[in-house]
Write a structure and sequence with these properties.
- There is one protein chain.
- The protein is mostly helical.
- The protein has one domain.
- Helices cover about 85% and strands about 0% of the residues.
- It is built from 9 helices and no strands.
- The longest helix has about 40 residues.
């Protein structure tokens, strides 16, 4: 019994290391493949439109309501200490540092990530990728690389839109509805938000999240079993693994950036 348990543990470790090695090799191959996309920028621009533009509505609406909630909760918390004039600073830092990149990445995984996984998985199930290989067309360069680069480009832009709309939502609730002084709202925000310490770090976070989520979505679709059940499982894994990876990377980057 003990030997059987050790054998199962060893088999699980071996399979995990094999999957990790395949994933790392695929990632580096994909990164190298993006180097040739400057010859065909239309492939990237089409995917940026598909990934970014179609995700814009859910990102903007979610950012607006997150700004509403931050405005309300921030005012009630700061009002206890007589610091409600710092509401603008609280809203801006919360969105730029944390909520903007993280919530955008989670929404990105749920909307664009699942779409990419289902698309690549369906192409594999219908043998379109195999047909490309038969015609000496590398699917990694023609299909995966443009989508990967487009996701990396679109993610920081969507995070910036989320944060900007969220600040607007906090302004509507805090200034227009509650009555916080408008000058104090914007001046505190302007003086307290640093371009390099806050904005740049938020952009770096969103770019890292874009790399992680987009790669996970493409990898799951590319390695999915060519059946309807396999594509469905790959789509589910994209959301689960992508969301967990975003939260883990957020902790790691926050510890490095703001320690």
């Amino acid at each position: 019994m003990m030997l059987d348990g050790l054998a199962r543990i060893g088999s699980s470790v071996r399979l995990g290391l094999t999957a990790l090695g395949i994933s790392a090799r695929t990632f580096f191959t994909l990164v190298v493949a993006t180097g040739s996309l400057w010859r065909r920028p239309r492939l990237v621009s089409d995917q940026v439109h598909f990934i970014g533009n179609y995700s814009l509505v859910i990102i903007a609406v979610s950012g607006l309501f997150v700004g509403f909630v931050l405005g309300l909760q921030g005012y009630y918390t700061l009002n206890k200490y007589g610091s409600e004039q710092a509401l603008g600073l609280l809203v801006a830092l919360s969105l730029i540092r944390e909520l903007g990149p993280v919530v955008t990445a989670l929404l990105f995984a749920g909307r664009a990530g699942t779409s990419l996984t289902a698309e690549i998985g369906l192409m594999k199930a219908t043998e379109q990728l195999s047909a490309m290989e038969m015609m000496a067309v590398d699917p990694m360069r023609r299909v995966l690389a443009p989508r990967f680069l487009a996701g990396v480009i679109a993610m920081p832009v969507l995070a910036a839109i989320f944060s900007a709309v969220g600040v607007l939502g906090g302004y509507i609730v805090g200034v227009r509805l509650i009555g916080v002084d408008e000058g104090a709202f914007w001046s505190q925000m302007q003086s307290g938000v640093d371009v390099w310490a806050d904005v740049a770090n938020g952009v770096i976070k969103s770019a890292v999240f874009g790399v992680a989520v987009t790669y996970i979505a493409l990898y799951e679709g590319y390695c999915a079993a060519p059946t309807p059940e396999g594509v469905a499982r790959a789509t589910t894994r994209t959301v689960v693994i992508g969301s967990l990876m975003v939260l883990w990377l957020d902790f790691l980057l926050t510890a490095l950036m703001f320690s």
